[in-house]
Amino acid sequence: MLDPIKVAVGEYMGRFYAEITPNTKVLIEYVGRGLPKSIQWCPSRMIDSTEEMIEAWQRNDTDSAPTQPYKSPVILVAMARDYTPTGRDFTRQVANAEDFIYPDDEKERIFKVKTVSGDVRVQVVILSQEEPSAKSLAAQFTLFVDGVNNRRMPARFKNLLGNDENWPVVLSTPEVSFFAARGQSKNNCVLLSDLTFKFTAPLYFAPKVEDENNDNQGVPGTTDPSGYLAVDYSVEHPGEAKP
């Protein structure tokens, strides 16, 4: 369920990379290096271990060539394994399944949906062998996230009809700061920032054909499911006018 969120965050970092202004000699090489060699995901277990993240990058062979000094600067990104439901002061989850019909479904099938709203922690680490470039990247990233259009992004989820749907991912606050990592060597400038992204993700439900009543409008054995049976309102609410 969180894979689309990770993809969305990766695309978000890619958008930032495309907007970097190379205002130091080192950054000229950095923006010309290409995204895959400039921003890298690290394993989630490293999110609170900056030293491990750096060591992983130093061992990384981005050029598939004989071992050589790691490229600097670089931005390392990790997503924490922990998970926290988003506070109800921000949004509410749909915990009880609700009926719905896709507007573009010609069969007008009835499905059900719940929504999950959660917070994920993401750590961004800037590693450079010279301080001006590290600070420039930090300053430009904080400027990027302060842009109104950069405070939210779409995460793409597949719906029951096999189509992509965009669901929101929102940065909890645009006030982002970078701090010097403890224990860094005198030859490296390491700046890190912790971000929190709030997301909403759908959980779709269709009848289990073998043991649930359904409308028989689906195609068994395919990704085209049957919907739930429509309820006759007059039976459920005798004597009441249909709304």
- The tally of beta strands, per DSSP, is 9
Shape: elongated
Tally of contiguous helical segments:
5
Main β-sheet description: 9 strands, mixed
Biased composition (Polar residues): 215-225
Region (Disordered): 210-230
Structure keywords:
243 residues, alpha+beta, 9-stranded mixed sheet, elongated
Task: Sum this structure up briefly.
The protein has helices spanning 3-18, 25-33, 50-59, 131-146, 233-236, and strands at 39-41, 74-79, 84-85, 94-100, 111-128, 152-158, 164-171, 179-180, 189-205. With 243 residues, it is α+β, with helices and mostly antiparallel strands.
Description of the structure:
The protein has 243 residues and is an alpha+beta fold. It has one domain. It has five helices and nine strands. Strands 1, 2, 3, 4, 5, 6, 7, 8 and 9 form a nine-stranded mixed sheet that branches. It is elongated, with a radius of gyration of 24 Å. The two termini are 36 Å apart. About 2% of the residues have low confidence.
List the helices and strands and how they pair.
Blueprint: H1 3-18, H2 25-33, E1 39-41, H3 50-59, E2 74-79, E3 84-85, E4 94-100, E5 111-128, H4 131-146, E6 152-158, E7 164-171, E8 179-180, E9 189-205, H5 233-236
